Structures are given as C-alpha cells and as structure tokens.
Amino acid sequence: MDPRLEGEFIAVVNAGSSSIKLSMFSLHDDRRLGPLRLELRAQVEGLGTATPHFEAAHADGTKAGSRDWPVGERLGHEGALEHLVEFIRHEFPGLSMLGIGHRVVHGGTAFQEPVVVTPEVLARLETLIPLAPLHQPHNLAPIRRAFAAAPGLPQVACFDTAFHRGQSDVADAFALPYALFEAGVRRYGFHGLSYEYIASRLPALSPRLADGRVVLLHLGNGASACALHRGRSIASSMGFTAVDGLPMGTRSGAVDPGVLIYLMDEQRMDARELETLLYKQSGLLGLSGVSSDMRQLLASDAPRARFAIDVFVHRVAREIGALAAEMGGLDGLVFTAGIGEHSAEIRRRVLSRCLWLGVSVQDAANRDGPPERRISTVDSRCEAWVIPTDEELMMARHTFRLLAAERKSP
Ligand code: ADP
C-alpha cells in the first residue's frame, strides 16, 4: 500500500465517450498550496475499441499501475469504472473518501454553478441528455453507480456550461423564432471548467488581465474560445452544442446550417449520419485525410495536412477578432490545452495574425520556458500567455467547497 494515500480524499471523475479519468486529491492544511493536493491520476482509454488500456500514476509521475485487456475483449464504460474502483480499493485501503466530483457537460439553463447531486437533480440532468447525447449519458452513469454503491457518499456535478451562464441573453440568442430561445435552443458554451481555472490563475499572473479583456483559447482535441471580461465569461465560440465554433480534431466547428439541409436533400443523410459527419469525420481529420492529431499534421508533408492547419489558424484568428469586438478591445490572449500549451508553431501563426490587436511576441519565450509563462514582449500592448489548464483541480475545488458548506449547515 502506498503510505501517501491514507487519510481524507476527494475523487474527481471525468467520464467521456471513449475514456474515464479518475483523479485523487488529498486534503491537507498547507495554506500556501491550498487545501487540495493531487496524489494520483488513473484512466482507462480506448473504451469500445479493440485496445482498451488502463494506466495510473502518482502526482510525481511514478507509475502506480497499468493493464491491457486481451485483444477483442471489448471493455465498456461499466467495466472500466468497475476496474478503477477496484484498483483504488485494492491498492489504497487506508483512504477515506469524502465525496466525488463529476464532470457533467450540460447543466442547461437551470444549473448556473456546481451542485450536490440528489436523486431529483440527477433526474433533471437526465432530461438534458438530448442536448448532449454523446457526452451526458457517460457523465451521469458514474453518478448513478456511486449512488447505488455508496448512498451516503456526496456527489457533486461540475458543469462545462456553468461558467458561461452569466452571459447576456443577447450573446446567448440565435436569431431563430423567440419561442425556440425560450425552449432552451440557445448558446450555452462549453469548456467552462477549463476557462474558470484559467480565470482563477490570472490575479496571480497578471492583475491587468484579471481586471481586463482577455480571449482564452482552449485548443485541444475539442477547441473553443472564450471572451473573459473582468474574470467573467461574456461570450464563447461554442454554442448550443460542443460542435460549434472552431474546427477541432474531428468536429467541424461552425458550418452554414444550409449545408445540412443540402446534405439531407441531396445525399439523403439523416440525423445520425449528420451527427457522425459533424462530430467524427470533420475538423482536422476531415480536411487533412491524414489525422485528427495536430502533432501528426505538423510533421506531415501532405498538402492537405497543411491545408487543415491553415484553416484551423484562420478560424482561430477570426474568432479572436470577433470576441475582441464583443469586448470593445483586447488586453490579453491566453493559450491552453494540448495544442495551445505545446505547439509554439500554432501559437506563432495565430499571434502573427493578431498584430493589429497590438500583440508583440517574444520568440524565445514562445518556443520554450516554464509551463505557465508570458510569451509577449514587455512592451506589448496586448499580452499573450501560455497557461496549462487544470479542469480536474477546478472540479476538486468545487467539490471541496460544496462539501465544506454542507458540513457547516446542519
Ligand atoms: P483533449 O481535448 O482530448 O483533452 P488535449 O488537450 O490533450 O485533448 O489536446 C490534444 C491535441 O493537442 C492533439 O491535437 C495533439 O496533437 C495536440 N498536441 C499535444 N502536444 C502537442 C505538441 N507538442 N505540438 C502540437 N500539438 C500538440
């Protein structure tokens, strides 16, 4: 047994369509570091594929466990969750779990912040499945399972939409008949936990940006941008679903809705086929025909790989301009997530199209440096930063806060 994993813990579960990630945070009293410390990350990837894989590592990177399943033995979400729970139970019998924070992609209009889940809350979250059919069911399944296995253990739902709920109706509305707006057909915005984490870092890193107008760029497999004004989200590129806005690994981003009507009429595509087209076959993969992975595209000589990158950079630059217009100017840009944190080349190309906004890039800092760093020159009118995101820590913070509040109120 690992002696570090004794005492009180908060678990954070991020269950997606092909993976389940579990992070364990211990509670301690270090004022400087805050009350939560990451101790262990575990994940099962490749669910529903022929090669599911489990891996666990301590916070310092040392291996805590791994497993592969026999080829052809398809592991589902249920089995993966079972394996993760058994792993924690078996390896770390000394820990006491205080509660579990779950990532839930959609909170609709009702849930403006994280919430302790009751059976009633769970029932309401299930009604939102049609708004995020590919994600919400996977997000909710571990909550249901934990309710059944440990009825007294508090569960907290942390929403990807909540951080954006303060946006104005004007920013939220599609110009469709108003009855649809009232029925919930509106922009919600996603990646909220990531943006909230970045916003929480700004006061320490750049007080000017914490109080100013910033475009946050979450560029990973999923990609979006958010206009942050004085720490609050006022607009975002993702809309009713997480397929809107920027091109992504396999998602299209914004498409003229007329294209969909055309495909329905001319190619007789139905809703499921359009869903597969827009979510799985488009974006960087669809344009390049090479890969959904930016690293592979950057390493490729194929003209269409270059074309896909060109389209990506073009759309990101355009979105920055649109969000800067929403805020009436721009004081800073922040890059985060896989591409945003690691690709100096994409950052360079995006920033080279932002000169008109007053960005002056410091090339050496853009290429290399500590994970959290300013990459614009000291005299740059508009600052540019790289800030690694930490959605899991954000969820752990919310869970801890809500559980502490529950303990206080009798
Ligand atoms: P997810 O949205 O699944 O969490 P990530 O945030 O991990 O995804 O981002 C994955 C993307 O980041 C992939 O396109 C990957 O190629 C890209 N990426 C990771 N490291 C680099 C790098 N060094 N250079 C370019 N792209 C990178």
Automatic annotation (TrEMBL):
Substrate binds at residue 103. Gene3D superfamilies: 3.30.420.40. Mg(2+) binds at residues 14, 391. GO terms for cellular component: cytosol. It catalyses: acetate + ATP = acetyl phosphate + ADP. The keyword Transport does not apply. Pathway: Metabolic intermediate biosynthesis; acetyl-CoA biosynthesis; acetyl-CoA from acetate: step 1/2. It holds the Pfam family Acetate_kinase. Its cofactor is Mg(2+); Mn(2+). Homodimer. This is Acetate kinase. It comes from Roseateles chitinivorans. The gene is ackA.
